[in-house]
Amino acid sequence: MGKLPLFPEQASTFAPEVDHLLYYLLAVAVFFTLLIFGAIFYFAVRYRRRSEQELPHVAHTGMVLEIVWSVIPFGLTMVMFTWGASIYMKESRPPADALQINVVGKQWMWKLQHMEGQREINELHIPLGRAVKLTMTSEDVIHSFFVPAFRTKQDVVPGKYSTEWFMPTKVGKYHLFCAEYCGTKHSGMIGWIYVMEPQDYAAWLNGGAAGGSLADNGAKLFQDLACTNCHKADGSGRCPTLVGLFGKKVQLADGRFVTADEAYIRESILQPSAKVVAGYQPVMPTFQGLVTEEGVLSLIEYVKSLGPKPAAAVPEKR
Amino acid sequence: MANEAHAHAETLALREQFDTAEQQKDASTLGMWIFLVTEIMFFGGMFLAYTIYRSTFPAVFALASSSLNVYIGAANTVVLLCSSFTMVLAVRAAQLGQRRAIVIFLILTLILGGIFLGVKAYEWNEKFQEHHIPGPSFHLEGTNEQGHAQLFFSLYFAMTGLHALHMVIGAGLLIFFIFKARQGIYNADYNTPVDLAGLYWHFVDIIWIFLFPLLYLIDRHLGK
Amino acid sequence: MITAAVQEREHYLNASYGIKSWLLTKDHKRIGLLYLATITLFFFLGGAFATLIRIELLTPQGDLVSSETYNKLFTMHGVAMVFFFLIPSIPATLGNFFLPMMIGARDLAFPRINLLSWYLLVVGGLFSLFAMLAGGVDTGWTFYTPYSTTYSNTWVIATAVGIFIAGFSSILTGLNFIVTVHRMRAPGMTWFRMPLFVWSNYATAVIQVLGTPVLAVTLLLVFCERVFHIGIFDPALGGDPVLFQHLFWFYSHPAVYIMVLPAMGVISELVSVYSRKAVFGYGFVAFSSVAIAVLGFLVWGHHLFVSTQSVYAGMVFSFLSYFVAIPSAIKVFNWTATLYKGSISYATPMLYAFGFIGLFTIGGLTGLFVASLGIDVHVTDTYFVIAHFHYIMVGGTIMAYLGGLHYWWPKMTGRMYPEGWAKLSALIIFLGFNLTFFPQFILGYMGMPRRYAAYPPEFQVLHVLSTAGASVLAVGYLMPMIYFIWSLRYGKMAGANPWGATGLEWKTDSPPPLHNFDETPVVTQDAYDYSQVMGEVIEVG
After folding, report:
1. ipTM of the shown complex
2. Is CATH 3.40.30.120 what the domain over C27-532 is classified as, yes or no?
3. What is the residue-wise DSSP string for C61-97?
4. Is A274 on the interface with B (CB under 8 A)?
């Protein structure tokens, strides 16, 4: 029969943290389960009805007892809350130097793209010991990117970006599952994460991508879509220059300040009149329907390549 | 008192399950108030959606709102307020047992409600002419954000439509009570049904009092 | 006082005959039985879907049914069980029958609205049944957008309309119960003399009245989106698919308390009567019911921890979710303390009560797991969550429902069920249940996702165990069906109070007279004063 696995592998820095919290929860759960089962069993036997005439006379209430068995469980649960919340906060703050991977989910496959240009379908090769940050969106319905061995999961939603990060700690091959019901082949929207030694990963990368890096692809798209007509590098066109834009604070026509992050750039391409930069006219046409989600992601990489890297990690908007 | 309460023959003012007419009146009134609370929760979901999308797309919502005819909307609001007044008069007449007056005031309420619905139909038709109905032929001048503009109008039609549906139900109730009132069954001892119908009618009116500014008056200024 | 011979005594079942006397009845007791029949049908329908699901999951490949069919099976299992069985179950059957009696009333405040509630459930059920027979619906019972509004090609609208109509059934029942408890209590029946079953149903009614309308408007918006493409959940038009999740769970989280609070009310009754002791901490248990109802409205975001909801919102919802756990824990401790120095009977209803307390404890404790953000990121949308809520809904609510049915069966029908067979069924259900659902905790933590027709082979052994358990469980559920019906004709005749219970319903004959009480009772004691019932005939020890 072979061995029966009853516990998932630990393959990321999050895994042991989550599992330790699990052990605490299990300890509390087992304790109270045994306590209640035991008490019921003991009372049921010890006080079983021996005659139809017996009439118990006991107190019906005890304030001290009520307080004790409210406060102690509450304290135990507050530990559960704080511990869980702290793991969650970490999961929402990818390190600044994380390896960036773009993910587009669609019915019923995962399309992944490395910055260097490598594309993968339903598989992701990543190096050991380096943080990996996924920027994800969907082309259709809501999906969810779930890697049990990493203990991480995040929904992949159409119309917005979501992020997920992890640092793999063990070489190997790990299940990737779609974890949000998405239609007919939901249970087929699965794949593998391959964690490789860094040198093997470098070799794998070199073996692959024809067609240049993601930023190169973005540059080409930028030309093809005639963005250069207005967005001139020296700012002399009708539209703001994009050099040094990424990560900067931008003032809008209505006075608000926003940060030029991935979501801002995506919205500027697909719904340009939503946020118009101060001092400029709302003349940019929309590219909705003219560019795919992967195209948008490559354009974002191009814009990033035009300026300084973003500052230290802040909690990502999910 | 209560020891003697037992199964008794049923009358309108004192049904079988109740011990006293006052108990029946209290229970019925409480029941209607609870029902109105459920209606608040029902409309509340749409008000929530409206709040979220208006705060996300304030400029487009203001533009879309300005395409509604504020004079007609305001006039309709006055019509509905008057209908609540005639409804109150009907309830008062029921308490006094004035059969003719109840019927007259209910009919007036019905007429005013009908005017409101007629004006609403006119407004909707205007929207249809202007291509402001969400769908393939939707177009709102003055913005690139057609999708967001459609959201405003979707909420406009959904919310005023739901309100109009409640008005139609209210009109049905009024017709029912006009017939009942003509039979002369409402008097000082038994008028709760008219009272409760009044509560419902006022509630539907109040919903409109919220809808009017939220839909018609976004960013409006005098003289604009 | 009726002086006719026992077999000719008039009661609510023989007071009138014929189908019209049932379909046009205003009697809350008959309406309770009408509901009993309806929800039993839906229970077995939902159970049939579950059977097919578990058979499919015996093998890793999707080989019994196509993926499309499997997706419809789990959807329809959820819709039937949640909306047409669990939500109505205890309130509409046992609540309808006994709440008025327990407070000394002749009927609910609005008997005709009560009948209307039943018809609404039936009509809603017919719409959903039509959808199931015409080809099914495959969105999951949770109808997430944009799949349900734009992509699914199945009978979404018919199902949504069915649920919408059934929702009004629930709202009207809740409204009826609230007014009844406020205005129809017999003289001397103060709030704190009411049985805890009444408190639970009252708290449930508040949730039904406040929460269900939000579900109704959410389904209405799904309808509008699907038919008119209004764009409210469509990102291409600026809409937000996650808005649906907030609206949906705003009802559906409190809904789980609609499903469990009445069950807790039954357990309070059972634990008391079969220990012959007042429930320990009556006031705490009563307030806990209300606290659960209130707090239950504040935690819906714990279904959205990985949905792209803000991290800070996630923390608030996780924190509040621990608050709502505490009143449930208080109840479990109080029920257990009631047993201390009691006079414990092992009658079947008590066995179900023991089962409930144990399994609800496990289900509730695993709720603490999923409330913890770090754990939930890993286990949400896996079998861990499925195991958690089935422990509560099946190990909890259904066991309490069966316990209540057995307890009140003699009162409703005038007959005893066969005690030996009943105890055996309870044991089979308990064992079958655990074998079905415990392996699913392990499956879930290992990463087995929900709603999968096919799965990696390493999960097979646990799935086989789970399906084996489901077969046992199915046998356990069929047995009461058979012997309850058998007992209607051949069961031992039951007296007015076979269990020596307190409570006004036990002061009437079995079955009760048409108007419950010949004279409105005057109440002078607290709810669980057993010194008053000593000396009455006790049927079973």
Report:
1. 0.93
2. no
3. S--SS-HHHHHHHHHHHHHHHIIIIITTHHIIIIIHH
4. yes
